[in-house]
Design the sequence.
């Protein structure tokens, strides 16, 4: 086994082994919505309820969402590969929404996609101590902290998509073969998106 230096391709390859959820963040104005895939989306705090995300500095969609101060995070399901590809495309503007089925999300009015595995809304604001929530530039990303508002896992939702080693895959929570309780189960790949089930 050889150890390599931390150049960009190696860094991407190593971190590509860490599975991440696939989230399309939407916002902007109802007449001109914006959206983008954000792989750096996470829960930051339960008390107060905060989420963090890190869109790329070169994004043309994020400034339009940030201007409104609110968004909807659509957690894509394993069968939404085309939606993921559409919103991973840079510079497509409002054309990304053409022909898509969506509704305004509660609290923010941001686009909420039919078939999402889960969704949550968030808005910028101040911490309980009155300080503005974080907005920082770090490397090639802009780090933002937003206050969580509402969320839902739709009834009958399909498993979420995961990105790992550059591929989208679905996951399901499967009980272990030994009959242990489901709470001790692990996520196992269901299939690679785009492949037959």
Sequence:
């Amino acid at each position: 086994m050889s150890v390599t230096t931390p150049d960009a391709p190696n860094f991407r390859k190593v971190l590509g082994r860490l599975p991440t959820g696939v989230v399309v963040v939407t916002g902007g104005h109802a007449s001109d919505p914006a959206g983008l895939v954000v792989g750096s989306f996470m829960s930051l705090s339960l008390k107060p309820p905060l989420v963090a995300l890190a869109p790329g500095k070169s994004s043309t969609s994020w400034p339009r969402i940030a201007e409104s101060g609110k968004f909807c995070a659509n957690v894509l399901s394993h069968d939404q590969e085309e939606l993921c590809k559409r919103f991973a495309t840079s510079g497509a503007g409002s054309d990304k929404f053409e022909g898509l089925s969506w509704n305004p999300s509660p609290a923010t009015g941001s686009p909420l996609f039919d078939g999402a595995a889960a969704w949550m809304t968030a808005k910028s604001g101040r911490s309980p101590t009155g300080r503005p929530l974080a907005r920082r530039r770090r490397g090639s990303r802009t780090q933002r902290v937003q206050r969580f508002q509402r969320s839902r896992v739709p009834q009958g939702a399909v498993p979420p998509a995961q990105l790992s080693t550059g591929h989208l895959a679905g996951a399901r929570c499967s009980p272990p073969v030994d009959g242990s309780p489901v709470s001790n189960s692990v996520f196992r790949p269901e299939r690679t998106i785009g492949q037959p089930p």
Notes: The longest helix spans residues 8-15. The chain has one domain: 18-192. The helical segments are 8-15, 62-68, 81-88.
